[in-house]
Amino acid sequence: MVKAKIAVNGYGTIGKRVADAVQAQDDMEIIGVSKTKPNYEAAVAHQKGYDLFAPASNSGAFEKAGIPLAGTIEEMVEKADLVVDCTPGGIGEANKPMYEKAGVKAIWQGGEDHELAGFSFNAASNYEGALGRDLVRVVSCNTTGLCRVIYPIDRELGVKKVRVTLARRATDPNDIKKGPINAIVPDPIKLPSHHGPDIKSVLPHINITTAALKIPTTLMHLHTVNMEVNTDCTAEDINRIFSSQSRIRFMSQGINSTAEIIELARDMGRPRNDMWENCIWPESITVHEREFYFFQAIHQESIVVPETVDAIRAMMELESDGAKSIQKTNKAIGL
Amino acid sequence: MVKAKIAVNGYGTIGKRVADAVQAQDDMEIIGVSKTKPNYEAAVAHQKGYDLFAPASNSGAFEKAGIPLAGTIEEMVEKADLVVDCTPGGIGEANKPMYEKAGVKAIWQGGEDHELAGFSFNAASNYEGALGRDLVRVVSCNTTGLCRVIYPIDRELGVKKVRVTLARRATDPNDIKKGPINAIVPDPIKLPSHHGPDIKSVLPHINITTAALKIPTTLMHLHTVNMEVNTDCTAEDINRIFSSQSRIRFMSQGINSTAEIIELARDMGRPRNDMWENCIWPESITVHEREFYFFQAIHQESIVVPETVDAIRAMMELESDGAKSIQKTNKAIGL
Questions:
Q1: Which chain A residue is nearest to residue B284, measuring alpha carbons?
Q2: Residue B1 in this model has a pLDDT that exceeds 80
Q3: Residue whose C-alpha is closest to residue A244's, from A202, A289, A278, A207
Q4: Read out DSSP for A130-195?
Q5: Pairs of residues, one from chain A and one from chain B, whose beta carbons lie less than 8 Å apart
Q6: A97: Cβ–Cβ under 8 A, 6 or more apart, which residues?
Q7: Average pLDDT in the A45-72 region?
Q8: Which of A81, A97, B304, B326 is the most exposed, fewest CB within 10 Å of its CB?
Q9: Nearest CA in chain B to A294
Q10: Dihedral of the CA atoms B255, B258, B260, B261 (nearest 10)?
Q11: Do B180 and A293 count as a contact with CB atoms less than 8 A apart?
Q12: Whole-angstrom Cα distance, residue B272 to residue B274?
C-alpha cells in the first residue's frame, strides 16, 4: 500500500507530537517537518530522522547551527498529499494560499477560526463529515475534551444544557515567559469563553455555556462539567457511557490531581508523558434528577494528536468508518 | 458607655485581623489575645499594645523570647464578656468547656461544625437571629462570600438553584509548607464540596451545588457563580442588587485578576492589603432568560473579619439593627 504523504508545518508542541503519531501508523508517513529556527527541537527532529525544512531566508542560520535542511517549506508542501499546519494560532491562516497553490489538503489546529477550513473535526463526533475533504480544522484541546464527553451523552440521553467552568493551565511546561505565577485570571471576564461557541462548530445543536479561568500551573486543564439531560439516568449510566469511549480514561488508585496524572503517564512510558485521553474521576460523577456533574482533566499538549491522525485518515479516505480509524490510531500509538 | 470586653483566642491569620477590627470600634475593646508560641506574630501583638496570654505550660518559652505575658488563657477568658475563638479548625471545639465554665459568650470560625454553636452567622443574611445569643459560628470565607450574594438575590428575585465552581487558593501567603505548587486538585473529588451544605447552615432553603478545586496561588479564591432565579431579570437588575450591598465591590479599571485586586488593596493603604468585600466583575454578569453567571474573588484572610465584629455586636446586643451594625463596622475599619 502506498502511504499517504504527510508534512507537518511547524514542529512545535503539537507538531512534533503529530509527526511521531503519524509516523507510528502504517497507512501514512511523514515526508517532512518544518521549523523556522534551528533550536533544540529542530536538532532533535533531525536526530530522529525527519527531513527538516525551513523558510529560505533562514537557511543560513540552520547551516551555521550545523542542522542540515532538506529544502524550503514550499518544497516540503509540494511533496506532500496533506499538510498539518501546527504553526502558532493566527499564523496558519496566512499559509492557506501556499497550500492551495500546491494543491495539497490541509489541517489546521483550533487556534484558527472555523471559517478558514469550513469544517471543525472531532473523531467521535463527526468523522464521517471529514471524508474526502480538502480542508479541516481539528478543534482545540479543551473543545476536543468537551466534544468527547458531550457527543456520547447526547446520543444516549439527549443533552438539554451544558455548563462548564474551565480551569486552564497558564502555559505549557517549556514556556518561561507567560504567567500568571500567583493569581487567578478570569479569562475572558465577559462570558461566555470561546469554548462554548467552539463546541457548536462541531455539535451545532448543543446548548452550552462556558466560563474559563487562567491559573498558575503548566500540566493540564481541569473542567468542572454540569450537564442537564432529557432522560432519567444514574451515575452508573454515565459511567457506562464514558466507559464505552476509548479516549476516556478513569482516574482512581490514589490519583487525586493533575500532577499524579502526569506521573502516571511518565510511569506508563508514554512519549513526553502524554495523556491522550480525557481523564475523568468516576467518583466525581454525581447525578441530581436529570442533571449531573463530573471533573475531567485535559492534557493540552497531546489530546488533539490522535484526533489529527483520524482527520488525516478521513480526508485521505484511508478508512470510511470513524470507529475503525479511532481503533487503528489508538493501537498504533499505544493508547 | 462601657465597652464590651473581647478576647481573641488564637492570634493567627484571622485572629490578628479580628483584634484590630474590634479595637477600631467604639463599643467594644480587646482585653487580650492569646498565642501558643512566642513567634513574630506574638512579638508584633505585644508591640501593638495587646495584652498577651499563653498556655501556662508555655510561659517559659515566652520569658526566654523576651515577650511579656499578661497571664494564662484561662485568665484571659475570665476577664472577657465574649471570646472570639480563632484557633485552627477543629481545635476550637475543645475550648468550649473552658468558655462555659467562665460563663462567657463565644464565637467560632467556619472551620468548626455548625452544631458546636447551633447558629451560623452572616451579617446580611441573619444578623437578627444572633441577638443575645451565647454561641455563634461565623461561617468560612467562601460561605460568607456566597451568602453575601445569594441572600440579596433571593430576597429580590427568588433563588431557584445555585451552582458554583470554587477555585480555591492552595494556602495563605505566609505558609511555606502546603501545596500544590504545580497541579490542579479537585478537592473533594466526590461532589458536592462542603460549601453547598454550609450555605444551608445560614440559608436553609437554598438549592445549591458546589464543586471546588485547589490551585497553586495564595492570594484569593475565585468563584464562578451560576444562579437560576424565579423572576425575569436583566444584567442591570443584578448589577443594581449587588450595588446596594456595602460589602460587594465592583472590579474594573484594568483589574483583570486576583493579583491586581491585591495590588489595589495595597495602594488603598488597607491593613495587610485586606479586601473585606466580595470582588465582583460587573462585566462578567451575563443573563440568559432566568439564569445568570458572574465571577467573584474572595480574600480568604479578611472577608470574615467585619462579619465577626457584627456577630459580636449582635450577641452583646449593642445594636439590634443589622444594617446599622454593618454600617458602623464598615465605617470604623475604613470599608
A1: A190
A2: no
A3: A278
A4: GTT-SEEEEPPHHHHHHHHHHHHHHHHH-EEEEEEEEEEESS-TT-SS---SS--EESSSSSSPTH
A5: 128
A6: none
A7: 97
A8: A97
A9: B191
A10: 80
A11: no
A12: 5
**Interface-testing mutation among A164, A257, A283, A293, with chain B (most B C-beta atoms within 10 A):** A257
Confidence class of residue B332 from pLDDT cuts 50, 70 and 90?
Answer: very high
Query: Do residue A163 and residue B226 have CB atoms under 8 angstroms apart?
Result: yes
| Residue A196 marked as a ligand binder | yes
Helices (H) and strands (E) in chain A, counts: 13, 16
Q: Are residues B69 and B105 in the same domain?
A: yes
- Interface probe for A, chosen from B142, B165, B223, B280 (most Cβ of A below 10 Å), is B165
DSSP state of B320: S
Same domain, B148 and B133: no
pLDDT > 90? residue B256: yes
Q: Which three cell numbers stand for residue A289?
A: 434528577
Residues B294, B149 share a domain: yes
Does the ipTM surpass 0.85?
Answer: yes
Can you tell me the distance from the alpha carbon of A166 to that of A180, in angstroms, rounded to the nearest whole number?
16
C-alpha distances in Å from residue A40, one per residue of A202, A233, A302, B53, B253: 36, 51, 20, 61, 42
Cβ B258–A284 below 8 Å, yes or no? no
Asked if residue B310 and residue B231 are part of one domain, the reply reads no
Give B-chain residues touching A283 at CB under 8 angstroms.
189-190
Which residue has cell 468527547? A148
Cα–Cα distances (Å) from A279 to A250, A303, B196, in that order, read 6, 10, 25
- Three-state DSSP at B26 gives coil
Residue A307's CATH number: 3.40.50.720
Query: CATH no. for residue A188?
Result: 3.30.360.10
pLDDT > 90 fraction of chain A, expressed in percent and rounded: 99
Residues of chain B with pLDDT > 70, as a percent, come to 100
Instruction: Label residue B180 by pLDDT band (50, 70, 90).
Output: very high
Tell me, yes or no, whether A168 and A258 share the same domain: yes
**For B212, nearest residue in chain A (alpha carbons):** A224
- Exposed/middle/buried for A72, CB within 10 Å: 0-12, 13-18, 19+? middle
Residues A46 and A132 both lie in one domain: yes
Q: Taking a C-beta distance cutoff of 8 angstroms, is the pair A281, A250 a contact?
A: yes
* Together in a domain, B128 and B42: yes
B147 is known as an active-site residue = no
pLDDT score recorded for residue A89: 86
Question: Percent helix, strand and coil across chain A, each rounded to 5?
Answer: 40, 25, 35
Q: Are A186 and B281 an interchain contact pair (Cβ–Cβ within 8 Å)?
A: yes
Q: What residues form DSSP beta bridges with A72?
A: A54
Please give the residue range of the domain that contains residue B22.
Answer: 4-138+303-333
- Residue A257 carries which DSSP code? S
pLDDT for B89 equals 86
Q: Are residues A128 and A159 in the same domain?
A: no
> Residue A168: closest CA among chain B residues belongs to which residue?
B184
pLDDT in tens, A210-237: 999 999 999 999 999 999 999 999 999 9
Query: Please, are residues B67 and B43 in contact by the beta-carbon 8 Å criterion?
Result: yes
Q: How far is B236 from chain A (nearest CA, A)?
A: 15
User: Which of the 8 DSSP states describes residue A253?
Assistant: T
- SS3 call for B88: coil
Nearest-CA distance from B186 to chain A in Å? Answer: 7
Counting the structural domains of chain A, the total is 2
Our CA-based measurement puts residue B178 at a distance from the nearest CA of chain A, in whole angstroms, of: 15
The pLDDT tens digits for B98-122 are 999 999 999 999 999 999 999 999 9
